[in-house]
Write a structure and sequence with these properties.
The chain is mainly beta. It has a single domain, classed as Jelly Rolls, CATH 2.60.120. Helix content is 8%, strand content 43%. The protein has three helices and 19 strands. The strands form two sheets. Strands 1, 3, 4, 5, 6, 9, 14, 15, 16 and 18 form a ten-stranded mixed beta sheet that branches. Strands 2, 7, 8, 10, 11, 12, 13, 17 and 19 form a nine-stranded antiparallel beta sheet that branches. The chain starts with 5 loop residues before the first strand and ends with a strand. The model has no long low-confidence stretch (mean pLDDT 95).
Length: 251
């Protein structure tokens, strides 16, 4: 447990509680990152105050869920932690991440707290996207923590400590990656550390395929043939704390 002051924690008791702080996104396939699923408003269930994003496959129709807190809960700095479990196979791409609340991507900034892809099942990824460093050239692109065993079907804690000029990533309370404003010297071109400039909001989604989740040979055919009919992304809780030295504001 983090020793800072708790600012907010999720309430996933039912759909009404979810809607208080989260927006449900409804978009078709290939809307984001060339992903194969469509996002619907009925891909969620609730069990013992836990949110479960459900993914179903019916032939080539894959339905899943994506939610965000834009306009309802925004954060600037703090320690942000989630307890998460997911089913896994090649093609799946669950993520817990953040976007800046103004400007267009990548100028707004993106903080990927946790990404997992089924073609590398013992690794988790922590990455920053911003002006001058995004996509395949992101800060920390390819940075990963190798756990030594497959991650699906186990609960783990994923967290960041976000302060001015630095962001640190943690897996089960252990630091595995640090990004700093000074570290942007590694990026090419005109790069700006956008993570001091604005509040960010939270996102959760359970994607299939796409530019990252499907980065293996013949991925689309493989996914349509071999993806299980039912998959689940469990979010037991999300908690936001002030850092031990006092950084963290909710908006």
């Amino acid at each position: 447990m983090h020793s800072g002051v708790l600012l907010w924690q999720s309430n996933f008791s039912n759909k009404a509680a979810l809607d208080k702080h989260w927006n449900t996104e409804v978009v078709g396939p290939r809307h984001n990152n060339n992903e194969l699923q469509r996002y619907s408003d009925d891909s969620f269930r609730f069990d013992n105050n836990e949110l479960i994003i459900t993914m179903t496959k019916n032939g080539n129709d894959i339905k899943s869920g994506r939610i965000n807190t834009k306009g309802k809960l925004q954060i600037q700095y703090g320690y942000i932690e989630a307890l998460i479990k997911f089913t896994g196979c090649k093609g799946l791409w669950p993520a817990f991440w953040m976007l800046g609340n103004s400007l267009h991507w990548p100028d707004c900034g993106e903080i990927d707290i946790m990404e997992w892809v089924g073609w590398n099942d013992s690794a988790i990824y922590g990455t920053l996207h911003g002006p001058g460093y995004c996509g395949g050239n992101a800060y920390g692109s390819g940075s990963k923590h190798i756990t030594g065993r497959p991650l699906p079907n186990e609960y783990h804690k994923y967290a960041i400590e976000w302060k001015p000029d630095s962001i640190k990533w943690f897996f089960d309370d252990k630091l595995f990656f640090t990004a700093t404003r000074n570290g942007l010297h590694q990026c090419k071109g005109n790069c700006h550390w956008t993570f001091n400039d604005r509040p960010f909001y939270l996102l959760l989604n359970f994607a299939v395929g796409g530019n990252f989740g499907g980065a293996f040979p013949n991925s689309e055919n493989y996914i349509y043939q071999h993806l299980p009919q039912n998959n689940e992304f469990h979010i037991s809780y999300i908690k936001i704390y002030k850092t031990n030295d006092g950084y963290g504001t909710l908006i």
